[in-house]
Amino acid sequence: AMPPSQRRSGRRAEKAPVLRVALLAAAAFASWLGARAFALGCSAPHLVAHRRAALAGLGASSSPGSGSRILLASFDSRSNGLVALWAAKKAPSKVGEPICDGDTVYIKMWTGRYIGELDGTSRKEWVKARGTKKDKDHALTIEKRAGGEIESGDEVRLVMPLTVTNGTKVHMDIVGSAVRARFYDPRGEWQKMTIIKQEGGVIRDGDTIFIRSVFKNGRDYMDANPLDKPDGVGGFGGEVKCRWPDEGDWQRMTIEK
């Protein structure tokens, strides 16, 4: 009979090739994992910085040299690891030029039409918004007594297009709900209006704005009737009014240069 010590030595000899194969397999697997981690690190060097966000469900990182894509990292519970996903990156919105005192501006109402026309039965003084394009007949001039850039909350005055007023400067004015153009008065109360941007700050080309009256209550905002509604003063549609203390859809307008 074989002594116990020889039997144990024999069993160890039989297991040695199996252990060697297992160790080699483990080393190969570890090498494969390292290569994947290195490749992922090269393509997304910021991924580690976002691991905490990824474990929460979603992380984001800019990809070097890729101006049109962004890396999204999420945690995959099935493979217990991070999964890199590429998605289209939204282009940053363009910041328009500041609007300044004396600039020519175009104001587009919620109807998609530009302010510029004057209409009326006895006198053409009622302001309308019927323009479909930015041209000389819809070119307003914005004024601020202190000069410089126009900011949200500033009091401004608007000069109607000179082609519409026969070359004479005429301010738009607000009295009650009526929006007309009758006089040029740089110090007049009727001609003052407050320009508002909900985000605050400098008013820029392309901004969404609201215009609030100053005279008397100083609480109502300028709006415009739909184009299919008769205005009652010799025209049809697009009448500019100042009726409600509301920064709503009808009061929303766009200022452009």
Can you describe this structure?
- The chain has 257 residues and is an alpha+beta fold.
- The protein is built from two helices and 15 strands.
- A six-stranded antiparallel barrel has the order 4-7-8-11-12-15.
- Strand 1 (59-62) and strand 2 form a beta hairpin.
- The longest helix has 40 residues, at 4-43.
- It is elongated and about 110 Å long.
Task: Give the helices and strands, then pairings.
Elements: H1 4-43, H2 51-55, E1 59-62, E2 69-76, E3 81-88, E4 104-108, E5 114-119, E6 126-131, E7 140-143, E8 155-159, E9 171-175, E10 178-183, E11 193-196, E12 208-213, E13 221-224, E14 240-244, E15 253-256
Antiparallel strand pairs: 1-2, 2-3, 4-7, 4-15, 5-6, 7-8, 8-11, 9-10, 11-12, 12-15, 13-14
Give a quick summary of the entry.
The chain has helices at residues 4-43, 51-55, and strands at 59-62, 69-76, 81-88, 104-108, 114-119, 126-131, 140-143, 155-159, 171-175, 178-183, 193-196, 208-213, 221-224, 240-244, 253-256. Helix content is 18%, strand content 31%.
Largest sheet: 6 strands, antiparallel, barrel
What is the global morphology? elongated
| Percent in helix | 10-25%
Which stretches are low in confidence, meaning pLDDT under 50 for 5 or more residues running? 40-88
Report the mean per-residue pLDDT as an integer.
78
